[in-house]
Specification:
The complex is a heterodimer of chains A (207) and B (687). Chain A is α/β, with parallel strands linked by helices. Chain A has seven helices and five strands; from the N terminus they run ααααβααβββαβ. Chain A has a five-stranded mixed β-sheet with strand order 2-1-3-4-5, with helices on one face. The longest helix of chain A is centred in the first third of the chain and has 12 residues. Chain A starts with 18 loop residues before the first helix and ends in a 26-residue tail after the last strand. Chain B has 687 residues and is α/β, with parallel strands linked by helices. In chain B, strands 14-13-24-23-22-15-16 form a seven-stranded mixed β-sheet, sandwiched between helices. Chain B has a five-stranded mixed β-sheet with strand order 2-1-5-3-4, sandwiched between helices. In chain B, strands 19-18-17-20-21 form a five-stranded parallel β-sheet. In chain B, α8 packs parallel to α18 and α11 packs parallel to α14. Chain B is built from 21 helices and 26 strands. The chains are: A alpha/beta (207), B alpha/beta (687). At the A-B interface, α4 of A face β7 of B.
């Protein structure tokens, strides 16, 4: 959650969407009937956040307000309501550690500890080189592969202390680790191999 | 018309209203915080929960439309429990600081907690604290007290038309905020304080000055603009502590503008509390008898032709009539109540009134503003125009410099030539006015006070007739009077008699020495430098421009210190009431004139206010009525001739300082500093 607005940094003085995004905005706004352009505020804010490097400076929000003929405060309301909009700058790797009950039961405390040890920062902080920002978040809906971390748009799942450390160190070296389960299991398949439908595919099975 | 049962009583109510309104109609009070009749429905405080049969949960009555066969209970254990629960939640984060809260004693939350709440809290954790916001010089915020009813957000957005307030954050972290630091720049921001059901928004100038139960409440009328808003004057001892709005659906609904509300601290500053006589160029205190003797010495033997009288913007009808009668006794035809020289026709009430009426704006479907900025000249007429705009299908165009009126306005240009084009039908908007079924125009006094004012009045008259604005049931021709005294003064004929001079001719005459004595009844807005060597008698309540120039000062009473008659811009006769006594030796204005008349041997034939009011009703039957508007007959008025190309200039340069009271008010000075000067790009020291 974003803190009080007064402490939010001012950011750049002006903002304009790239040509590519402008075309996407036209398509987004066209989805809604005349006079209801304001409905496109969420996707526009998302595009703006991506263009600004993961956060929404005030200039970007004002620009969106102008594009959609909304009062700026109506855009600020939306941007402060949704936790996925960041109102202050974040690092290149935005590390969101899930600490909601299922992840916590499966050891998210260890994940947080690994993050702390590897990056030297805790939740809500950014590393000095500006590469990493860490935050604790509520359930990201990947409980079956708990515990997990979201880094920018990618999920890294089935973590423990070592795997988290490895993952973050790879990022520090500038590598791009493969998203998904870090134990090699496919999606949400059972960790100890298939349990059902064993007979159907090949005709032979243990029944 | 759905039939429904409320507490076992069968009622038939209008379709489309809410359960809460239906309950109110049968006299059942439903507690509420977020619901307000004049704002959109939010349904977020949950205090209005009632039990509806066949619904598993209690329903929010403010947001539930009535339906056929609905069965509602408002007095069951379930409702009681729901209210207790909601109240307990509301109080979880509300501080227990009633003893130091300005809202204490008139707080909805306090009252309802007493009536519907639980006597203890089960919440042992820390309450949250919220940072206070800076909303300008009028509204003080203590945001920890906020219960998030969002009335202020809705008022700012819907009524005031300034979308600056919003709810940022969510859940526990929700705050009412402007997000980026900015003041609420609207002329009606004081109403935010009235709307706030708790002590989160309170009046900054009134902070910690009085408790509501110490105040004596007097119902009265505002005179700082021509709208005549219904107000309640709250006083303690001999001091007016604050001014609040009263309900008058036809005039101000339940709002008042910030000048009406906050200029009252000017009532006790720079007051004239005793007579003065100028001796050797210096004003010296005097007794009433000395002052009268000085006037008598000057006026006796002076021909009426050489005496003139000008009534100021705050003059009441009784004193204007007394002065008019006195001038007639002295044989002077030179009197005028139009300080700015607005070229209206004193003989034709339709030429100086707001004929459509303020409430009538809601029935109009097209409007042309001519040389007027209603936002500053009559803020509540502007909120009515905005209300009409929000109802939809309302086209507004303006001739004059482009300004933000809080609703979309098509600017047709700023030259009177546009008006000529409209009359000639050469302008597309003329077509729009013709097509409208009930078009209206609002003509500002700024447009009429120009040299070509009569021609502009004539053009507006022609336009009204050409576009079908005047019919049997509809009169769309409106002049926006600027001052509380204007319509009343013209109604009772405080205008040049046959062969008499108007204001500019009086000033010219005084400059040339043809007028030797000028009686200023609270007239401060004329150019005192043009009075030349004339003997000036100033009767008024504040040491403003008039008193500064005067040779004799007679201290009068302000609108809170007398029972007096005023006529608002529609032609509605209303009365102020005495809330506090005038300071020192100051007296009610009509009584001063009555006493002076005896000294001048022209004794006026009335000894009491009642007799004077009978005389008023005799002068014009309109004064026998109260709080009604009778349509003025349509007639022929206005001059002809060419209009000049010079653009219209709005007459009010600073909304917060327009009269002797608001000019000395520290609160109005703070507002000027906060709202007017930044817009001009100047600081207060720029002179």
């Amino acid at each position: 959650m974003s803190g009080p607005s007064k402490k939010a940094p001012a950011g750049p003085e002006s903002f304009a969407f790239s040509a590519e995004n402008q075309a996407r905005i036209e398509a987004l706004v066209a989805k809604y009937p005349e006079g209801r352009q304001a409905s496109a505020v969420l996707p526009l804010l998302d595009l703006a956040q991506r263009e600004c490097g993961g956060w929404l400076p005030r200039a970007a929000m004002d620009h969106v307000a102008e594009l959609l003929s909304m009062a700026p405060i109506r855009v600020y309301e939306v941007a402060t309501f949704y936790t996925m909009f960041n109102l202050r700058p974040v690092g290149a790797h935005f590390v969101q550690v899930c600490t909601t009950t299922p992840c916590w039961l499966c050891g998210s405390n260890e994940v947080v500890r690994a993050v702390r040890e590897t990056l030297g920062i805790g939740p809500g902080e950014t590393t000095e080189d500006g590469k990493f920002t860490v935050t604790e978040v509520e359930c990201l809906g990947a409980c079956v592969n708990a515990p997990m971390i979201q880094i920018n748009d990618d999920y890294y799942e089935d973590l423990d202390f070592d795997r988290t450390k490895k993952l973050l160190e790879a990022l520090q070296r500038g590598e791009t680790p493969t998203p998904g389960s870090q134990t090699g299991r496919r999606y949400g398949a059972p960790q100890s191999g298939p349990k059902t439908l064993l007979a159907t595919a090949s005709g032979k099975g243990k029944a | 018309m759905p039939k429904m049962m409320i507490n076992g009583q069968e009622v038939e109510v209008e379709a489309g209203i809410t359960v809460l309104q239906a309950c109110e109609q049968v006299g059942i009070e439903i507690p509420r915080f977020c619901y307000h009749e004049r704002l959109s429905i939010a349904g977020n405080c949950r205090m209005c929960l009632v039990e509806m049969e066949r619904s598993p949960k209690p329903v929010a009555s403010c947001a539930m439309p009535v339906a056929e066969g609905m069965v509602i209970h408002t007095n069951t254990p379930m409702v009681e429990k729901a209210r207790k629960g909601v109240m307990e939640f509301l109080l979880i984060n509300h501080p227990l600081d009633c003893p130091i809260c300005d809202q204490g004693g008139e707080c909805d939350l306090q009252d309802q907690a007493m009536t519907y709440g639980f006597d203890r809290s089960r919440f042992a954790e820390n309450k949250r604290a919220v940072e206070d916001k800076e909303l300008g010089p009028l509204v003080k915020t203590i945001m920890t007290r906020c219960i998030h009813c969002t009335r202020c957000i809705r008022f700012a957005e819907e009524i005031a038309g300034v979308s600056v307030l919003g709810a940022t954050g969510r859940g526990e972290h929700m705050e009412i905020d402007t997000y980026v630091e900015q003041t609420v720049n609207t002329e009606v921001s004081g109403n935010l304080v009235d709307l706030c059901p708790v002590g989160a928004l309170t009046s900054k100038p009134y902070a910690f000055t009085a408790r509501s139960w110490e105040l004596r409440k007097t119902e009265s009328i505002d005179v700082l603009d021509a709208v005549g808003s219904a107000i309640r004057v709250d006083s303690r001892d001999r001091e007016v502590m604050r001014v609040l709005p009263r309900l008058n659906e036809d005039v101000n609904e339940e709002w008042i503008n910030d000048k009406t509300r906050h200029a009252c601290d000017g009532l006790r500053r720079q007051r004239l509390d005793q007579p003065y006589i100028r001796r050797k160029g210096k004003l010296e205190p005097a007794s009433w008898n000395e002052a009268f003797a000085a006037i008598a010495a000057k006026l006796k033997g002076l021909s009426g032709e050489r005496i003139a009288a000008i009534a100021g913007d705050l003059a009441d009808c009784e004193s204007m009539l007394a002065l008019k009668d006195l001038m007639a006794g002295l044989g002077s035809p030179h009197l005028d109540c139009r300080q700015n020289g607005a070229a209206v026709d004193p003989g034709q009430p339709a030429s100086y009134r707001f004929n459509t009426t303020i409430a009538g704006i809601e029935a109009a479907d097209a409007c042309l503003l001519i040389g007027t900025n209603p936002r500053w000249e009559a803020a509540l007429v502007n909120t009515r125009l905005r209300k009409r705009h929000r109802m939809g299908g309302f086209q507004v165009a303006a001739i004059g410099p482009a300004i933000d009126l809080t609703y979309p306005v098509e600017n047709l240009g700023d030259s009177p030539k546009v008006l000529e084009a409209l009359v000639a039908g050469r302008h597309p908007f003329a077509e729009a006015l013709k097509k409208a079924s009930q078009p209206m125009l609002i003509l500002g006094e700024g447009a009429l006070a120009r040299e070509d004012g009569p021609a502009i009045l004539g053009l507006a008259h022609k336009l009204a007739e050409a576009t079908g604005m005047v019919g049997e049931k509809w009169n769309g021709f409106n002049v926006l009077a600027l001052a509380a005294s204007r319509v009343g003064g013209l109604d009772l004929g405080f205008a040049p008699a046959k062969g008499g001079r108007d204001v500019s001719a009086i000033l010219e005459g005084a400059g040339k020495g043809e007028i030797e004595a000028v009686y200023l009844l609270g007239a401060d807005e004329i150019d005192m430098g043009r009075l030349g060597k004339a003997f000036v008698i100033y009767q008024g309540h504040h040491g403003d421009a008039g008193a500064n120039r005067a040779d004799v000062i007679l201290p009068g009473a302000t609108y809170t210190e007398k029972s007096a008659t005023y006529v608002n811009l529609e032609g509605r006769v209303q009365r102020t009431n005495l809330a506090v006594f005038p300071p020192g030796d100051a007296r009610e204005d009509w009584a001063i004139l009555r006493a002076l008349s005896a000294v001048l041997d022209k004794q006026l034939p009335y000894d009491s206010l009642t007799q004077l009011r009978e005389r008023l009703a005799g002068a014009n039957p309109v004064f026998a009525t109260e709080d009604v508007v009778e349509g003025a007959p349509w007639g022929k008025f206005g001059g002809s001739g060419a209009v000049k190309d010079a653009p219209f200039v709005y007459p009010i340069a600073n909304f917060y300082m327009t009269d002797p009271i608001s000019r000395v008010s520290p609160t109005m000075a703070a507002c000027t500093e906060a709202f007017v000067l930044p817009a001009r790009g100047k600081t207060g020291t720029d002179g």
